[in-house]
């Protein structure tokens, strides 16, 4: 039921990526590992000295307790200092890698084709950008360095055990099958379990986000019950997914605990028997038992982090998956020659097999005003978005000055064609930052000119900090009309020669509308305009009118020509004209 629109990377990809990431800074990595190795070696001294002490007592050859204590203390202090620098080095490395990961992911998300974002819904993306990034950062910050430290410590401790007495390493082997089998069992189930957990969480976020953003509709249509049920279902699915992974852990953890205790007991008992046989000394048994005990801590951390690495791996699979979304823009190098906008044989489908545009041919001359009219659902907005280069056509082409719109880099595209809708977003930040989005290099004078052009300079000047006033959520509140003017000023700065207008002002407070229409008229001045017209007088004033019906342009010509032709436009016009005058 969960709609998995955004792909998830497979295990091989995650492994390859993790390997590349780990080895990216070989120097930093070897320094960190080297320091951890030295710390582990320092930690081996105490059991060894203790072994000697026991041996001395047993042999009755007199022991230097003070010397041994000082030795142990010295090595412990050295270990503490080494650990401090080792942790510092590995944390620094982790942060560095994490910062790059985040940057890369943000780049990927911003590069997602709009059509994919629309289809995928925001829940999945929000979960990936929040929960998955969080869990991955825990992995990179803690799990990866800790795992490497634990590995180094284990290897060195096992090495020391073998040096002390190869025979005494044998009892520890008893733990291997227990740990191996139970961990294999766990890992085989964990990845899918955690992926399911994340997906269930995404569904829940999706549902809640939808309920909140559609709160009015929910209330108006009395959908509360249904939304409650959906949330309940989501929660219970999320709960089931969490319970599954919890179940895995409740079996795996105790088994592992058992795997730790057995080797210590075995080393002591079997070592004792070896001693009676005279195969090993009491010092060796003591030291070996302590080493085996010292193995528990890194081993435990290793296994615990394997669990965490699973969670991180699942998150990484979801984050890397974002990169697999095929780009709907092709990298091209063409430079438009002229300003003529042309659609040629354009077809487009939101869902495969269901074209909503069926072969549109249209040429818009520079400076022309073209109005698009037609029944709701005919495809006007879709065509508008294609003409503005937001989507690429399924077949056919949309070109400006002979260059395909989808081949233009987005930044260039916006300097040629822009779509104007009622949706405009004021980002949290200063007003200046909001305007500079359109053209980062614009100077003070250009910003001011743009605001003056849309008749907004007056209120901007009156803001507490002028252009540097923080607006958007949590900032200075500005009215909807002001926000729209700011959006129009952005357009002036981007300075596209062609504008596609989709119901630009129809939802505005009527008192503000006149004012805004003046601002809009100033922006339209001297540009090519394609207006999706919902009021016919817009069409009347246009140079040409295109009637869109059922995904096709059924009529195209000037107002007078179309009225004279007596087609569907003429019928529309006479009914509108007849009833409203
Ligand atoms: P108009 O602007 O003329 O009202 P649209 O271009 O909005 O028409 O819609 C044309 C067809 O495409 C309609 O059948 C509509 O249901 C469908 N459609 C529009 N937007 C989407 C979308 N984001 N996803 C799926 N179908 C869509």
Automatic annotation (TrEMBL):
Keywords noted in UniProt: ATP-binding, Cell inner membrane, Cell membrane, Membrane, Nucleotide-binding, Transmembrane, Transmembrane helix, Transport
InterPro entries named among the record's database cross-references: AAA+_ATPase, ABC1_TM_dom, ABC1_TM_sf, ABC_transporter-like_ATP-bd, P-loop_NTPase, Type_1_exporter
Membrane topology summary: Multi-pass membrane protein
Domain annotation ABC transmembrane type-1: ranges: 31-310
Compartments in which it is found: Cell membrane
Single annotated GO MF: ATP hydrolysis activity
Main localization, broad class: membrane
Gene3D superfamilies in the cross-refs: ABC transporter type 1, transmembrane domain, P-loop containing nucleotide triphosphate hydrolases
Cellular component, GO annotation: plasma membrane
UniProt xrefs under Pfam families: ABC_membrane, ABC_tran
Regions that span the bilayer: 29-50, 70-89, 147-164, 258-276
Protein name: ABC-type multidrug transport system, ATPase and permease component
């Amino acid at each position: 039921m969960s709609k998995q629109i955004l792909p998830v990377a497979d295990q091989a990809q995650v492994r390859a990526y993790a390997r590349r990431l780990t080895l990216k800074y070989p120097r930093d990595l070897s320094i960190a590992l080297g320091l951890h190795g030295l710390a582990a070696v320092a930690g081996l001294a105490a059991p060894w000295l203790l072994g000697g002490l026991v041996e001395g007592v047993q042999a009755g050859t007199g022991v230097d307790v003070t010397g041994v204590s000082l030795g142990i203390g010295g090595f412990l202090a050295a270990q503490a200092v080494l650990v401090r620098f080792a942790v510092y080095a590995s944390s620094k490395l982790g942060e560095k890698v994490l910062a790059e990961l985040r940057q890369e992911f943000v780049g990927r998300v911003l590069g997602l084709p709009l059509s994919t974002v629309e289809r995928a819904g925001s829940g999945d993306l929000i979960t990936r950008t929040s929960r998955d990034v969080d869990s991955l950062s825990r992995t990179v910050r803690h799990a990866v360095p800790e795992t490497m430290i634990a590995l180094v410590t284990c290897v060195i401790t096992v090495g020391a055990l073998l040096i002390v007495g190869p025979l005494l390493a044998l009892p520890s082997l008893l733990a291997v099958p227990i740990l191996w089998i139970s961990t294999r069992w766990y890992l085989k189930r964990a990845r899918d379990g955690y992926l399911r957990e994340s997906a269930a969480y995404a569904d829940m976020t999706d549902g809640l986000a939808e309920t909140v953003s559609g709160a009015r509709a929910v209330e108006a249509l009395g959908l509360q019950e249904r939304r409650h049920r959906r949330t309940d279902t989501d929660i219970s699915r999320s709960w089931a997914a969490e319970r599954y992974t919890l179940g895995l852990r409740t079996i795996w953890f105790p088994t592992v605990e058992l795997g730790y205790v057995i080797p210590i007991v075995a080393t002591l008992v079997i070592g004792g028997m070896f001693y009676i046989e005279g195969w090993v000394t009491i010092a060796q048994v003591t030291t070996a038992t302590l080493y085996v005990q010292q193995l528990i801590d890194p081993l435990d951390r290793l296994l615990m982090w394997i669990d965490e690495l699973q969670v991180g791996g699942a998150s990484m699979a979801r984050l890397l998956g974002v990169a697999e979304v095929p780009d709907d823009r092709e990298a091209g190098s063409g430079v438009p020659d002229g300003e003529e906008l042309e659609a040629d044989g354009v077809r487009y489908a939101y869902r495969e097999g269901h074209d909503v545009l069926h072969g549109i041919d249209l040429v818009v001359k520079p400076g022309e005003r073209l109005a698009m009219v037609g029944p709701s659902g005919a495809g006007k907005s879709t065509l508008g978005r294609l003409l503005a280069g937001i989507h690429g056509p399924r077949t056919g082409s949309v070109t400006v000055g002979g260059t395909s719109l989808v081949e233009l880099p987005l930044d260039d595209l916006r300097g040629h064609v822009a779509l104007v809708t009622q949706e405009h977003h004021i980002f949290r930040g200063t007003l200046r930052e909001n305007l500079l989005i359109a053209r980062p290099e614009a100077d003070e004078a250009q910003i001011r000119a743009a605001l003056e052009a849309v008749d907004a300079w007056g209120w901007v000047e009156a803001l507490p900090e002028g252009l540097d006033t923080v607006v958007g959520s949590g900032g200075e509140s500005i009215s909807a009309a002001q926000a729209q003017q700011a959006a129009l000023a952005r357009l002036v700065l981007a300075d596209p020669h062609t504008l596609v207008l989709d119901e630009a002002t129809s939802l505005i407070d009527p008192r503000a509308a006149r004012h805004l229409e003046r601002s809009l008229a100033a922006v339209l001045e001297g540009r090519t305009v394609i207006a999706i017209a919902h009021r016919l007088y817009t069409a009347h004033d246009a140079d040409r009118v295109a009637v869109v019906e059922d995904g096709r342009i059924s009529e195209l010509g000037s107002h007078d020509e179309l009225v004279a032709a007596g087609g569907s436009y003429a019928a529309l016009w006479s009914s509108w004209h007849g009833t409203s005058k």
